[in-house]
Queue: 4 jobs
Job 1
Amino acid sequence: MAIIAAINLGFVLFDLSYVPWRTFYFRNLPKLTQVYDPVKGIEPHRDTQNYLQVVNRLQNQISNTGLQSSQVKATLEDLKNLSVEMIEENPFASASKSGTLEKIKNRMRAHIGDDSAKEAFRIFWSQEYLSKQSFTKEIGFFARNIKPLIASNYYRRIGENGEYIDRFWLYDLPIVLLFTLDLIVRSYFIKRRHSSFSWLNAILWHWYDAIFLIPAWRWLRIIPVAFRLDKAQLLKLHGLRRQIEQGIVANFAEEITQMVVIRVIDQTQQSIHNGDLTRWLKQSRSVNTYVDINNINEIEAISGIVVKATVHQVLPKIQPEIVALLRHSIDSALNQSPIYRNLHSLPGMGEMQTQLSEKLATEITTNLHKALVSAVEDPVAAQLSSRLIQRFGESLGDEIQRKKILTEIQSLLFDFLEEVKINYVQRLSQEDMEQILEKTRQLKNQVSVPAVVKQNSTLVEMRKIK
């Protein structure tokens, strides 16, 4: 089916190019135009066709009766009149080939050396001129330079619907019916495999094949043809598909990220504007819209866990480092004292300094650790600490709730969030989302490569065991 689709696409592209490139096909593949002209409703234009028939009659008359006969004279007069009519009526306009007529006029003017195309044709089709210049030579010029341009003109018939006749659909109909049947059969099996799918969902599974059913814009068939050739591994489109997907995802990622961030900032600004900051400071749970699902202050609980872990597990492990730091600090402080510098010169003072610093640092660290352990394990100390923190928060909240301070804080927060929103969106727009996606893909590849290597190693080991 992929090969058939590709052949059909080539036929479609040829049909689309036929009318614009008919002159090329007419000059290089004349038998092709004889076969395909009826498909597009094209037939020779009667005026230009009659002109060439009169020229052929002239040649036959000269061969039979000579150039100076009365029959030849009458035929030359007919050609003069037909030349003037061709220039004035422009039979090439209906086929959008007025440029061809201009070529004919320019070539005849250049050949005769007259600025008037009508006069140039009158001179060319005269017994005096043809006798003087040699009829064989002049008719050869006409056959090489003028006749092919006149013969390329055509008339395209118009149907009763007011559009140009185009019978291509008759030749395309069997292909459309074939791919329609293929789409129905494939959708049927997809629907059987996925019972929850509707017929529409099953058809959309291969949405690109539906393009074959569109009577217009047949050039869009390049999409299903590309998909089919890629699936049949006749065309490598992985890189192109990755670039297209990356571009689409990058656009969506940028838009969605902007929407989410701006929405969060707007919601925060709206909360500040509605006075949620004031209600939060007042700790009024009756009017607070914040939902508590477990009646636990999570921040307080997390802080307690962190403090206990720090006091009981972390500090004992880092006690040697703390002692070394304190000892260094004590030594530095003693060395800066003028009195100690004078005593340092006495025998034994250096060793005594080291012992003193070591003992003092150890005592400070041990006592500090014991104090922290006692504070954590002592319920009275914990209650006093909690009361201190609570009182500090209440006092700070009462002070902030003063109208002047609260208004100033709300205004500054609102402006700060607005600045964040503007600067973030601007920075996000300047960032290359495709670079971010490329980095993500590289990270995925780095993760997948070791997995593949490990899997291959396992297979090799299993083969060895066998």
Note: Residues 172-237 form one domain.
Job 2
Amino acid sequence: MNPYKSFSPQAYASPISGRASAADTSAMSVTQLNRQVKSMLENSFLSLRVQGELSNLAKPSSGHWYFTLKDTKAQIRCAMFKGSNRHLNFAPKEGDEVIVQAKVSLYEGRGDYQLICNSMEEAGSGRLQLAFEQLKAKLLKEGVFDASYKKSIPSLVKHLAVITSPTGAAVHDVLSVLKRRFPGLAVTIYPCQVQGAQAAASIVKALQTVQEQQVCDLVLITRGGGSLEDLWPFNEEQLARSIFACTLPVISAVGHEVDFSICDLVADYRAPTPSAAAEIISPDQDNLRIKIDQLQKSLISNINATLANNHKHHQALAARLKSPQQKLQLQQLQLSALRNRLAIPTKDTLNAAKQQLSFNRQKVMSLNPQTMINNNNTQLAHLHDQLVQFTHHQHLNYRHKLSSAAAMLHSVSPLSTLERGYSITITERQTITKYQQVEIGQIITTKLHSGEIESTITNIHPE
């Protein structure tokens, strides 16, 4: 389709000589001309991405934004209406390098050609954000972020390793909080680069040094806030692998509270800011003194109670202790009583023996084979009746469970869903649940209750 088909300059050319009469219909008005040019531009450039530097940014009370997008050799006016700019996740300012998604149009009132922007992103952030998401998905699939691999943070840190820039604001914030809360905590600064192409390798080397020295029991990796490009070393895979393999627990405090990095996700604990990390690591010395006083009082109380109990126990043992003379007299009395019982045979003993003999005779009679057979037959018949009743009951019970399970299976079956008029759309590999899974021109299959439909995608509507 030719986007310029509706406009032909020759069709509106004036005669070579003479003056157009009032009834001359070949001449077009300025409004008509601008309208034709606007239609040509909008039909020719439906949507495109343009990169440039922001200038002359105006944000009137209407909520619409007006600005100029320029590079070293050219510039173009742009408009971004409030329905589009309110969805941005950053605040653009003069001098920012941005990429806009826009269509070319023309402002008929002045005849200025311009861009109508639908979206805007920081130049470079789109590429970096994509790389971030790809690495995040890769490490997530490998289980690097799993909570089962997270090491516990010591309740009372003895020696802290701080990996950061020795001149940055982050190390100042951390040391200030530690000095205020717990000045007795030993801290070693392991200097490294926190920005630039070599920063990730520098941080990895510092982390290796901490482990080799075997002095510290906790590692803090930190730096202040910045753009996505500034914080990118903390999204490098080599740093993520080193933190995951670290033998010491690691706390990550990178950027501000809204900044999230791969370092935060793989670390054993993520603090929103460097100061918050120092708060988490160090106990408050005033609270610690109170707790020590409480433990001291509790220890003294427990010792006193233990001593009192031991004294009572000692007194009880002393009361139970008898002299050897008293013990010999008691044993002599017991010996005399035993001699009397042995010397005088009792009539009760003979009667007990007779009763035992009678009992043994009855037991022998009960062991008669015929009696045992009769008893066993009776017991066998009783057990047979119980087995029949139990089998019948179990049969009914299993039939009921089978019916219930069949009904439940039917209720959740995809075939039952299809019977109610729903359908399932699939590709060759998977069931389609999101519009991102397909693309224009792709063939898809829709399964119905009866039969299937094959379709070709001609358009995709995200909303």
Note: The longest strand covers residues 48-58.
Job 3
Amino acid sequence: MGWIGWEVINEGQYKIPMQKLSSDEKDVIEGVCKEFSDTVKDEVIENGAVAREIINKLLVQHLNKNRISADEEQIKYLTDAIFLATYAYGPLTYLLEDDMLEEIAVVGLGTPIYVFHREKGWLDTNVMFTERDALIDIINKMSRKIGRRITLQNPRLNAVLPDGSRLHATIEPVSDLELTIRKFKKVPLTVRDLVKTGYNADLLAFLWLIFQNDKNIIVCGNTAAGKTTTLNALFSFVPITERIVLLEETPEIVIPHKHQVKMKTNPSLGIRMKDLIEDSLRMRPDRVIIGEVRSKEEILAMIESMNAGQARGCYATMHAHSAKELVSRLRYNEVMPSDFSAIDLVIVQRRFLKFSGGKVKETRKVVEVCELAESRGGITIHHLFQYDPKKDTVVRTPAKSRVIEEIAFANGWAESKIYEEIARRSNYLKAIFAKSKNIQKDIESYGFQ
């Protein structure tokens, strides 16, 4: 196997800052990589700075020994290339560090690496993998810390990287060779950031009040619609002192609450989402978050958790393009019409293509906020907010809200007082969105009037 199993090319919409190497430079790199491997052997070097120091020393010795001259700039990029090949993750290292990227995709050898940019969509890069073994070595290097490997006997790999990124890879006979990495923002979005996805101050003020009360909410949408990201941001509305139990298959929820318990499934040990949901019933949580509900048993366990009322609120994400599709999926998985009352609110967020200025752009928008109600053996959808494409935001509908009625009744208030409070919070949010440097702190400091 060659240590440099990739090639820098001239084309590419996204430029990875890597130097195109000559054949002589590749020979030097191959030699120093072998010397580095012989030097460290089975020793695990946890510190990248230490690895660079060793590499730089070996490189200078190699150049002197072979009477090869190199200037300071050349030594730097040769050191970088050796570091990427031996210690880091090759060209993927730079992509993993870019917080503007959501997805990294390798679709085979001899084809550019692709990235999905948060603002520009899919872009091809100026680097492609050329050697199968080099890419497989990088995949296994990335999953080493969690004790997994991709091999001919195990040609599929799904793993969570230490930084929370989600890794998926397959080799033959499943595919020729492919890799996908789903990245998550290092700095979580705030409710202010949700304005870009169609949320306005009126809807956010409404959700703020709902999240502060004992209500169960499902956030649904299609793949990569930002369901988890939205739930992360909306948890800014949950009092910071509450105890949160997070149940996930892949750790993606990042909330500011210190009193949180994270639990995740483990298929190899037979620990399913249903088991974690049942465990949560014994943990006295203030809130329960179920990261992703997929199967029939998970759906029924979620409904059981919502009906049990052991927490102030149960929150889950599900795949569904619309509230109507969500209802169909729940009914298909044998959720009884009488159990739909356990779901207080549904938020639907969509990822879709939008035509603007002669261009096609992928966008994410909240398209529905609604309540579900049993009606003559069926389910009626009451839309409270709906997306208006012309205004590019949601608008409130005339429909009455059952949840608002319940909050008003529980507090002995007139509904008009609730709507006055929502209007007050809406104005407050507009003010802090314009000038606040710490949205979370300002939300916490708000006093109910």
Note: The first strand starts at residue 6 and ends at 8.
Job 4
Amino acid sequence: MKKLISLVLIFAVYLGLISPIVLPTRAQVSRGKTASPNMNETMQNGLRFRLSEGAEGAEKRTTTPPTAGEALSENQTVNLLKRLPEVKTEAEDQKDFAKRQGSLPAPKTGKIVNAKFPAGEQRPIPNQNSSDTLEVIRFSPAGEVGLAPDLNVTFSQPMVAVSSQEETAQNIPVQLTPQPEGNWRWLGTKTLMFDALKRFPMATKFVARISAGTKSATGQILQKELSWTFTTPPPKVEMMIPQNQTTRRDALIFVSFDQKINPEAVLKTISVTSAGKQISIRLATEVEISKDESISYYVKNVQPKRWLALRAINSDGSTDNALPADSNITVTVEKGTPSAEGPLTTLKAQSFSFKTFGAMRFVKSFCDYDENKKLCSPEGSWQMQFSNPIDLKIFDKSLVKVEPNVENLDVVPSGNTIVIQGYKKGRTAYKVTVDGALRDVFGQTLGQTAA
């Protein structure tokens, strides 16, 4: 047996050594003729070429010299050119050669006058004409403005000499009441600007006055006193949380404004009501805010000192279920709400509303997100709406049953709605049921099957 195995191995090794010699490749046998079909056989005209394996002696092949050509005669050339389409010309094709008019003349040398700058002697003001009057050309802001970053006044005559800002800042002909933190500075010799340190305070009425007899740098005099006012707005509510939502009965309420406020003072102008009844409230503590992920997020993303957070309380001061169940809650920032920046208060009430949760129940069903649609299309989706938001963390698609079966059924919960998608048959009545074990975010179950 061992001898037989040895003979087989020796034969296999021998066969492997001589196979490259005994079995030449098809390309070698065909001597440069490729075995693959010609891809250009179907082409009637055009360039044709053949790709094949290299063969010995290719470097010794003779090359075909180019065919000797003869130049065309003049008549033959003319006849050949006549076969080309006529070149279309336009009126703008022919233009004169563009050349520059010429070089500029060389600059002339001037007389150098040596003088001291600034001049030592005091010279009179040029073009002084006391008969001309001084006027205020324009000023801003004026009237009711949403935001006032600075104040500008432009005169008809120069008011200061060209000098440093420190010297010109001593000549301020405008009186501003009240005057916030900032600096007066001249933009040139005719425009005066008050640059507020931050901006003009909100909820404030400002009065600017330029007295009669104000004199310009060239001697002109302002004949009449000029005064104007501008007003920045009182507090405006920017963000209200929760709004148009279903919430817990001990939820925090968050309100932010467009300017700084005093939370204790604003709280006195806020009312929380349900069915016409007043609900007691207080400011939320820092600990309560930090425990509420939603409210703490908004607190970090608004400007400081522009918000307040409050909550409802029971008669004994506790907060458990302080808001009535399954009720519409209205929060009103009443007229007269003060600002921490100025004395003006709001002129009208600002309000928003939300709803507290009740028992988890089925509300209605519809298709294609159209509550008025009576017939559903096979390609559309179905929606089942509930009274409270669904707990997405523990939702199980097996709670939803469809009869008859829908191909590629997909059940997606979103907020207080379940969306059902899949391939439905036309002219077929389907029945959708939701198990009573469906749970909302408040820990309540549906209790009974909804269909």
Note: Confidence is low (pLDDT under 50) at residues 21-41.
